[in-house]
Structure formats: C-alpha cells, structure tokens
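Data availability (excerpt). The following record was deposited with the supplementary files.
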Amino acid sequence: MKICGIMRISDAEAAAEAGADAVGFVLWPGSPRCVTVEQAASLASVLPDRLQRAGVFVNEPADTLRASMQEARLTVAQLHGDESPEYCRGLDLEWYKAFRVDGRTEAASLEQQIARYPAPVFMLDTGAGETGGAREFGGSGRPFDWKLAARISMRTAGIDDHERRRMILAGGLDASNVALAIKLVRPWEVDVSTGVESSPGVKDHDLIRRFVRAVRSVA
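Predicted structure:
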C-alpha cells in the first residue's frame, strides 16, 4: 500500500513505522501537496530502503523528470497527466500510468487505453473534473465505481503472463472502506492520500495506522 502526498518528515516516518510499502511525493506545482525536488530528497532520506518512493508527475518534460527522480532518489514515477505511450517508452526508468475514471468511463475503452502503455502496473483514480472549462489533474479524494475497477482488474490479470497488468486502486479510500474495496476489486496495491489527512498535506498518524491495519486484515 502507498501513502501519497507526503510533505512532512514526521508523516514519512509514520508511514514507514505503520508498515506502508510505499510513499509518494507530489512534484506537480498544481497540487496543494506539492513539494520541491529538494524537499522530496530530504523526505526520502529518512525512509528505509525497503520502501518504494514514488514521484507524482503531470506532463513533466522527460529530461526534467529524469533529473528530479535521480536527485530525490526516487524509485518509480507515477504519471498523472496526458503522457503518451511514446513518452513513457523513452523514460528508461520505472514508471506507471494513472488513468482517470468518472461516471462516463466505459470498461472497454479504459482497457484499450491501458493496453497502449508498455508497463506491468497501472493506476485507476477518480478524475478531478474540470474548472472553468479546463481539465484538472490529480485525484479528487472521492471513490469511483468499484464494479468497473473489478472488471478491469479481472480482465487485465487474466491475460498472458508477458502482458499481465497489475492494478493500483486509488480514489476516496480510507480505513472505513479500503477492506471492502480490496475484497471487491482485488487490486495489486492500494493508494491513499486524502483519506489519512487532517488537512491537505497534513497526515493524521492514527489514520495511517488504521488504514494499514485495515489493508493487512484482508491482504
């Protein structure tokens, strides 16, 4: 499981101590949880090597992304924008693509999108919608249709081994619903940010512990 949107050293340490598998640092200026590369490097430095350290990027130039990943010693890039399959193929580092889901999303169309990206892992997250006619990026902190996610999870896990995909489920998860989400969807990993916060970017350490316990109860 990943605790995302980490901005404080105490929160990074709390995630590690609670037993999270990964943490995420948002390196997109449009997010209220954005940190600089220097801050991400400082936060990552307190974490044990066992934890995956994800950098969340939105339409970042490839050279800038590579430099940020190296400087902050991050292990995987989470791509949350309109990055093309061609862009992703050229990164030469570990990455996965996040796909935004809303009430208009159709399973067949989403499967086709996922199949275009040459990575074994993908994320499903609730779309943030639009503001003033412009589409927003990042998660919304709200859940989407888990039945759709379950169909995608089942179909992408059932194809040939060399094309198998593993899902990260995000969007509106918290300690009260994550166990049910895991039972219904059977994702490879779950991701939480808003659901363990007392305010944007400020993690509640008790909520982190409760979330981790809920995941472990069914994982």
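Summary of structural features: Residues 79 and 97 are 5 Å apart (CA to CA).
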